[in-house]
Write a structure and sequence with these properties.
24% of the residues are buried. The protein contains twelve helices and no strands. The longest helix is centred in the first third of the chain and has 31 residues. It folds into three domains: 187 residues, Ferritin; 40 residues, no CATH class; 42 residues, no CATH class. The radius of gyration is 29 Å and the shape is elongated. The chain has 295 residues and is mainly alpha-helical. It is 63% helix and 0% strand. Helix 2 runs parallel beside helix 6 and helix 7 packs antiparallel against helix 9.
Length: 295
């Protein structure tokens, strides 16, 4: 097996200091990736989708940093600087320490705090040893900034009401900066910006969630033509204008019941996904985005 030669122009003491600090950061990052991926797998509850995406975004970003710092270590200090055995011991020690924290968000914040402390210690220690290069300085600064964002995400999700979690994570996920595989390599093309997967078309769109909004937008006094015909004159509203608004309002309960499955399931007919009732199967065959035929 051939090994890469180190190119860091430094004394043995300077190399030792650099190696110890960077090894510590690498171990924390590898443990952090495992922790975030485990939280990604174990996400559950009402905020499942948002939490699932959040931890995916976190472990994928950490994975790119692991590769970057390991390549830097090999370039600076040689291939033996990333030997598996000593790394495995360090990673296990760090991961076991966090495993005592049951809440995935508090565990994530603890890992971010420990990483930031390690980055600060590395920055100060390597600089004091006069072994800091411009590239390593920039790399450590960029990593610290990225993990400030990770901590912000975790804190925001913990503070947000459950209904806002998915929107918050998806918005931040899409706004995340592109991640280069080896961010330290000058001129290397950057990887595509990560985009949050969208599974909304896999679920029925519950009309109840938006009918109130649609009714308000229509400006109608009622969604029933009969009611509008009687009420418009009393309110001094032109009937023709009001009937146009009724057309824009959500359909009535009677119209819902007249659709396939209405006799079998009542107004739940538009939420049927699968049924063994032969008379109700037509309702289950509707497209995921259930819509009513024009009046």
């Amino acid at each position: 097996m051939t090994t890469k030669n180190a190119y860091l122009d430094a004394t043995p003491l300077q190399k030792k200091v650099t190696h110890e600090h960077l090894c510590g950061i690498l171990a924390i990052l590898r443990a952090q990736e495992m922790s975030y991926q485990t939280s990604h797998w174990q996400a559950s509850g009402l905020s499942y989708y948002g939490n699932h995406l959040l931890f995916q975004r976190l472990y994928e970003s950490v994975g790119a940093e692991i590769d970057g710092i390991a390549e830097k270590m090999v370039g600076y200090l040689g291939s033996e600087s990333v030997n598996l055995a000593p790394q495995a011991v360090k990673v296990a020690t760090v991961a076991v320490g966090w495993a005592k924290i049951e809440c995935p968000f508090h565990r994530g914040l603890a890992s971010e705090k420990q990483l930031q402390a390690a980055i600060k210690a590395a920055y100060d220690g390597i600089k004091e040893a006069k072994a800091m290069t411009l590239g390593l300085d920039d790399f450590l600064m960029a990593m610290s900034n990225a993990h400030d964002t990770n901590a912000y995400l975790l804190q925001q999700v913990m503070a947000a009401p459950p209904a806002r979690v998915a929107a918050l994570v998806e918005r931040r996920f899409k706004a995340a900066p592109p991640i280069a595989k080896n961010a330290h390599t000058v001129g290397e093309p950057k990887a595509p910006r990560p985009v949050a997967p969208n599974a909304k078309d896999e679920f029925y769109d519950n009309p109840r969630f938006y009918e109130t909004h649609d009714f308000a937008q229509s400006g109608a006094i009622s969604n029933s033509e009969v009611v509008a015909i009687h009420a418009a004159p009393e309110l001094g509203i032109p009937l023709k204008k009001e009937l146009k608004k009724v057309e824009q309002a959500p359909v009535t309960t009677g119209e819902i019941l007249s659709q396939p499955g209405g006799e079998q399931f009542g107004t739940l007919n538009r939420l049927v996904v699968k049924t063994e009732d032969p008379d109700g199967k037509q309702a289950a065959q509707k497209a995921p985005r259930w819509t009513f035929a024009p009046r």
